[in-house]
Design a protein that fits this description.
The structure holds two protein chains of two kinds.
Chain A (H helix, E strand, L loop, with lengths): L17 H7 L50 E10 L4 H10 L11 H16 L5 H11 L15 E4 L3 E4 L2 E3 L1 H10 L2 H6 L13 E7 L8 E2 L5 E2 L2 H21 L4 H19 L20 H5 L5 H6 L7 E8 L7 E5 H6 L1 E5 L5 H10 L7 E5 L5 E3 L3 H10 L5 E5 L5 E5 L9 E9 L4 E3 L4 H4 L7 E6 L3 H11 L20 H10 L4 E3 H10 L3 H9 L6 E3 H6 L8 E4 L19 E5 L2 E4 L4 H4 L5 H33 L12 H26 L11 H33 L5 H8 L5 H8 L3 E2 L1 E2 L2 E2 L24 E2 L9 H36 L3 E2 L5 E2 L5 E3 L20 H12 L1
Parallel strand pairs in A: 8-16, 9-15
Antiparallel strand pairs in A: 1-5, 2-3, 3-4, 6-7, 8-17, 9-16, 10-13, 11-12, 11-13, 14-15, 14-17, 18-19, 20-21, 21-22, 23-26, 24-25, 27-28, 28-29
Chain B lengths: L15 E4 L2 H11 L8 E3 L3 H5 L7 E8 L3 E10 L3
Parallel strand pairs in B: 2-4
Antiparallel strand pairs in B: 1-3, 3-4
The chains are: A alpha+beta, B alpha+beta.
The structure holds magnesium ion and zinc ion (ZN) (3 copies).
Magnesium ion binds next to loops of chain A.
């Protein structure tokens, strides 16, 4: 095949003229029949062999090429009477309203027309929107009642959707319309925005209809051997049939009414052929009652040609299934079911070095893993290895230069994706680990970037087919290279849930292990080198501390100090002397003080993980995450960890104190209301009296809720100090899951419910619910929930809670759809901007958009949480290295 | 309505605009290895362009305060509307 290369200088859009349609047509289609009794296409029918070939083996009657090579050729239908093109119906209406009914001139004085022409020409030259100018012309010309050129009185043109035009209540036929459009002078057409070289106004009324090639509307053979035609073909049959009848009736001199009826029917068929979802007419239906998919339907919408086939396509070599967790595989890996591995293949070229190995795979065939599904000959033909016979044949033939499509195997690089793909970490490269089971398995640390959980989520996997793609995926897309997020310059991959609570419990002061226990843990975690290291260390009276064992994973020269998540934010931080063990000190790779929690290696927050990736590289970071996952999960599985409703149990004393606080707050609210009613309340600056009152009430109630939460937490802490494990609190303070607010709501008080950021106010006249007196604006009557989730809500509280909860649901639903649309628009606008090697950001035309990316040229993923340099950290590092 | 004389260049949100001399302009284009048409554009009717009396074809240096880089220079070539 010869390849032509040309640079496209520009694209010009026009409307096909009847002459052009005839010129490009290779056949005049006259009969509505498609095939004769023997199944051969009829000449002059819609399947005319001149229109191209779809059946393999046959040759095209026009170009002589085979199916697949012949692009197909257009035919035409000569319409007995002109019809309006729906796509231009509105435009035609606009033009009819501003031209004279007699002479077809624009209903403006000559000088004005000339001026508009000049302005449009100018606008076009500098790329400005000419639509605004045409609008102006339209507005000036539409009310003119007498033609300034011929003096004819003008009628009132009304447009009735989809294709009817009325003049003073009398219908205009498409012929009338076309006649008027034909008479428009070229100069006037230019003033209307037409480029007459490629689009005359009368081209908007069809006299000839192009018939698309058969390649555009192939018929399919059903299992029963029956032929089923494409929807477009059905529609074209209708058009030809009516066209024929109309022609016959005209020739026979039938009465005007009959001709008009048929003409209108022809208009209907042509309209629905272009667009079957036009407002005002019933859609054309298939015999089964299903609406036909005609031209516009092929292009429009999510599944249309543009969004469904050009912006995004279906692909081969992909798999989709449910995901489930596996803490024992690396973050770089993905567990693939054997069934999937047998279906997805990787092409491997046969060389003298791998032929023996590949022969083994071919011998295993398609069904036995690890095998191969196809052997491809150098000429591109393939042998499918699903039968013993074909395997034998392939084995005999197999030689250097062949390509074996072998099953997916351990270590292969694949792309793994979870929708919605909102950022680049939504598609990452993983190494395959083939395993039993029917789900994809992934390490829990990669849940945050995919935003995945295991409540039924499914993910897609793509087997890479080329060497370049494989190299690119491995070097740029591998999970370990995505630990740092370009969004905020910190780790986005990291510990979640049990990793965090596990590590917290593991590194607490009082956690220690007997030698055997310690060794067993390390063994389960497959940390064999660390076992040797630990044995060399001395234990304190036979015990190893959790911190000591944890230190085995840390790089030996690591020095780091930071406040842990559990930090109580005391007024003066005692740093390493923190009584709560909340200040982390790592000296020369030893965890001296502090506990490991969310701030250590959690996704979005991990300081320690952040340090390791940035100072020791992604290999070390991956190793760290893999080991910490296995170690901590092994530990927490052995120790046991749970949460139950008794985690929110409070002693009677605490309940009383909480109740006191809340009751007092309610009274205080009542007092403020009384003050307001007596006119003693002073408005805050810039607020009305009512706003001030609302703000005061909200403030009092939220303070009361916070205070009751503090009391609850105090008592929970006391109980824990007495040695009772409280899973809920541990998860909240270590940042594993939930917050202290959640605990407060469960144990003490749910708090104020709100709709649109205000206390609940709508409902009945003067009150929210009939349970309250009219005009009651006290805490209870406006949605303050005094109860806790555990104690249970009163009926009115429950109702208010449902109101607040509903708003939340609606908000998320609205937000996702809106942000999804915004994302599409943004990506369309930004997709070909690129940072060049000289640090400039340029578009596809190479025009500069930014002279330095982000104004400082920094890669946000390599910054310190968005800041180019953190001087304090650098100094600390230098000092700690010396001391 | 009468014309109010406000010096927009004094507004805190308007960065400094400077017309480059011929040598400076050539130096810039050489440094960036581009032609003038590859620069971002600014209309001659822009109030700041009128204020500093730049003509179509001139290159304007805009001195922006940047939260990430301190000072950030942006360059635009003046284009006419016609
Ligand atoms: Mg889910
Ligand atoms: Zn052909
Ligand atoms: Zn006239
Ligand atoms: Zn502290």
């Amino acid at each position: 095949m010869r390849v032509f290369q040309r640079t496209i200088a520009g694209i010009k859009f026009g409307i096909l003229s009847p002459e052009q349609i005839r010129e490009m047509s290779v056949a005049k289609i006259v009969t509505p029949d498609t095939y004769d009794e023997d199944g051969y296409p009829i000449e002059g029918g819609l399947m005319d062999p001149k229109l191209g070939v779809v059946d393999p083996g046959l040759r095209c009657k026009t170009c002589g090429a085979r199916a697949g090579e012949c692009p197909g050729h257009f035919g035409r239908i000569e319409l007995a009477r002109p019809v309006i093109h729906v796509g231009y119906a509105k435009h035609i209406a606009r033009i009819l309203k501003i031209i004279c009914r007699e002479c077809s001139r624009i209903k403006l004085p000559q000088e004005k027309i000339d001026e508009f022409r000049k302005r449009i020409k100018n606008a076009r030259k500098i790329g400005k929107d000419e639509e605004v100018i045409i609008d102006e012309l339209y507005n000036q010309a539409k009310q003119v009642k007498v033609c300034p050129h011929c003096g004819a009185e003008q009628g009132e043109i009304k447009f009735e959707k989809p294709t009817t035009y009325l003049e003073n209540g009398r219908k205009l036929t498409p012929s009338d319309v076309r006649e008027r459009l034909e008479k428009i002078t070229d100069e006037d057409a230019e003033a209307l925005g037409f480029d007459v070289e490629v689009a005359r106004p009368e081209y908007m009324v069809l006299t000839v209809l192009p018939v698309p090639p058969v390649t555009v509307r192939p018929s399919i053979i059903l299992e029963s051997g029956e032929r089923s035609e494409d929807d477009l073909t059905h529609k074209l049959v209708d058009i030809i049939r009516i066209n024929q009848r109309l022609q016959e009736n005209i020739e026979a001199g039938a009465p005007q009414i009959i001709i008009e009826d048929l003409w209108e029917l022809l208009q209907y068929h042509v309209t629905t052929y272009f667009n079957n979802e036009v407002a005002g007419i019933p859609p054309a239906r298939h015999r089964s009652g299903r609406p036909l998919k005609t031209l516009a339907q092929r292009l429009k919408g999510k599944e249309g040609r543009f969004r469904g086939n050009l912006s995004g396509k279906r692909v081969n070599f992909s798999a989709r299934t449910v995901i489930s967790p596996d803490p024992n595989i690396s973050i770089n890996e993905v567990g693939v079911p054997i069934e999937v591995a047998r279906e997805l293949t990787v092409p491997v070229r046969v060389t003298p070095y791998n032929i023996d190995y590949l022969r083994k795979l071919v011998k295993n065939g398609a069904h036995k893993y690890p095998g191969a599904n196809y052997v491809e000959r150098p000429d591109g033909s393939k042998i499918r290895l699903d039968k013993a016979k074909s395997v034998e044949k392939a084995l005999k033939e197999l030689d250097v230069g062949y390509i074996v499509h072998r099953h997916l195997q351990d270590g292969d690089i694949v792309l793994f994706n979870r929708q919605p793909s909102l950022h680049r970490m939504s598609i990452m490269a993983h190494e395959v680990r083939v395993m039993p089971g029917k789900t994809f398995r992934l390490n829990l640390c990669v849940c945050p970037p995919y935003n995945a959980d295991f409540d039924g989520d499914e993910m897609n996997l793509h087997a890479i087919q080329g060497e370049e793609a494989r190299a690119e995926a491995r070097m740029l897309m591998r999970v370990q290279d995505q630990i740092l997020s370009p969004r905020f310059g910190g780790p986005i991959i990291g510990g979640i849930h049990d990793h965090i609570s596990g590590a917290y419990l593991f590194t607490k002061k009082e956690t220690k292990f007997r030698r055997e226990e310690a060794l067993q843990l390390l063994y389960i975690a497959k940390m064999y080198d660390e076992i040797k290291k630990l044995l060399k260390e001395k234990s304190e009276d036979g015990y190893y501390t959790g911190k000591q064992i944890f230190s085995l994973i840390l790089p030996e020269d690591l020095n780091l100090r930071y406040k842990a998540k559990v930090c109580k934010k005391c007024e003066t931080c005692l740093e390493e002397d923190c009584p709560y063990d909340a200040f982390v000190v790592i000296k020369n790779g030893k965890l001296i003080k502090g506990v490991m929690d969310e701030k250590s290696f959690g996704a979005f927050a991990g300081e320690l993980l952040d340090r390791i990736v940035k100072d020791y590289g992604t290999d070390k970071a991956r190793e760290f995450l893999d080991k910490i996952t296995r170690l901590v999960i092994a530990f927490i599985s052995k120790r046991g960890f749970t949460t139950g409703i008794d985690d929110e149990d409070l002693p009677e004393e605490a309940k009383q104190r909480i109740n006191e606080i809340l009751t007092k707050a309610e009274e205080e609210v009542q007092n403020v209301i009384e003050m307001y009613e007596q006119g003693l309340l002073e408005p805050l600056p810039g607020r009305t009296l009512e706003e001030t009152l609302e703000m005061r009430i909200m403030q009092i109630l939220s303070e009361a809720r916070d205070k009751s939460g503090q009391i609850a937490n105090e008592y929970l802490e006391k109980i824990e100090e007495r040695g009772k494990l409280n899973g809920a609190r541990i998860m909240a303070i270590s940042g594993a899951r939930g917050s202290l607010l959640n605990l407060t709501q469960m144990a003490a008080c749910v708090g104020q419910q709100s709709v649109r950021g205000e206390r609940i106010k709508r409902g009945y006249s003067g009150r929210t619910l009939p349970h309250f007196k009219k005009g009651d604006i006290g805490a209870k009557a406006k949605g303050f929930v005094k109860s806790s989730y555990k104690s249970g809500l009163s009926p009115t509280e429950f109702f208010f809670h449902a109101m607040g909860g509903r708003e939340g649901l609606v908000d998320t639903a609205v937000r996702t759809s809106q942000s999804g649309y915004m994302q599409r628009r943004l990506i369309n606008a930004l997709q070909d901007l690129k940072v060049e090697y000289d640090n400039t950001v340029r578009d596809a035309r190479y025009v500069i958009v930014a002279f330095k990316h982000g104004e400082d040229g920094a890669d946000p993923a390599r910054t310190d949480w968005g800041k180019t340099v953190n001087v304090k950290k650098v100094i600390e590092k230098v000092i700690s290295k010396r001391g | 309505m009468g014309k109010r004389k406000v010096d927009i260049s004094k507004h805190e949100l308007v960065p400094e605009h400077i017309v480059l001399s011929e040598e400076e302009a050539n130096e810039l284009l050489k440094k960036l290895n581009i032609t003038k048409s590859q620069l971002p554009k600014i209309l001659a009717s822009d109030p700041m362009v009128k204020k500093i009396k730049a003509k179509p074809g001139d290159i304007i240096k805009i001195v922006r305060r940047s939260p990430t880089a301190g000072v950030y220079y942006y360059y635009r070539v003046v284009i006419s509307e016609k």
